[in-house]
Structures are given as structure tokens and as C-alpha cells.
Amino acid sequence: MKLAKTDAGGEIAMDMTPMIDVTFQLIIFFMLLMDMSTKELEELVLPKAFSAVEDKPDPKDPRPVINIVADGRILVKRDLYFDPQNDDGYAKLKKFLSDKARVMPKAHVDPKNPNSMMAPDKPILVRADQSTPFKHIQKVMEICGQEGIKIWKIELAAGEAKSEEEKAKEAAKGGQ
After folding, report:
1. Range of the domain at 141
2. How many CB atoms lie within 10 A of CB 45?
């Protein structure tokens, strides 16, 4: 029997097309993922805080994020939940918070008293523009306390206050 002779010293060409395809697919995936992670956050000018804790939410346990724009509109994931121009009594926001409160993990409000009320144990995040009248933030807080919702942990978002050094750098850049 005769065997075909092959050149053992020849180069093997590797097709890189599948590798390039996979790389582009990963790039597209991560671009979409980054876009979705910021979908909850509206472009707001947050009030400055001189003392605050950095926000590090647990990615496994998403929390509701409520955005209040300067004119009083309330948005959740870029959807309008209340418009002061078309006052519906906050019906859509109440339903949203009620639905979220129903699925949030519950705990006793007073851990030392087992007879205390059960309420959602995780906070919601309220982000309001610095020029938003407080009455809009207050209304969201009132709704959180209503029967059927009882969300008692609320986090308020704030931006970092700039140091004198950062302000000087910005002023220098603006002058150039």
C-alpha cells in the first residue's frame, strides 16, 4: 500500500475569520450591556454633597431608581411615570412602587420586635435635579409610606462637591 507523502515542514494556515467574528460579537455585547446599565439614570445635575458615601449597588439585587427632573416629571428607566402638566394623581408611580414593594425581600421594621410590621428591606434610589422643588421629592416619599407600599428605606443621590483644586483646573481650562 502506498501512502501519500506530506511535507512535515510546511506551514499550516490558520483561518482567523471566526476569531475576528467572535471578537466583534463580544464588543457589540459589551457596548449594549453598558448602554442598558445606564438606562435607569437620567441626565440630571445632582445637588452637591460635601460628605457622602459612594454608591455601590449590588448587581445581583437591582433596586428601583426614580428620577425627578427639574420641572417635576418623574421618570423610571426613561419612561414617564408622572407629569405635572397631566396630573393623574401619581397613579402610574403608585402602581410601580406597589409592584416593586411586593417583590422586594421583607424584614421587620424593628428587628428586636418580632410583632413589628414587615416592610421591604432594600432601599430605593431617588435622584432629583438640584433645581427640582422639594415638593416633588416629598410626594415620592409620601407615596413610599402609603398602605400597600411601605418602602421605608430611601437613598437620595448627590454629586460630589468639587475641591478648590478641581475648580481652579476647570477655570484654567475654560480660559484657554
Report:
1. 61-160
2. 12
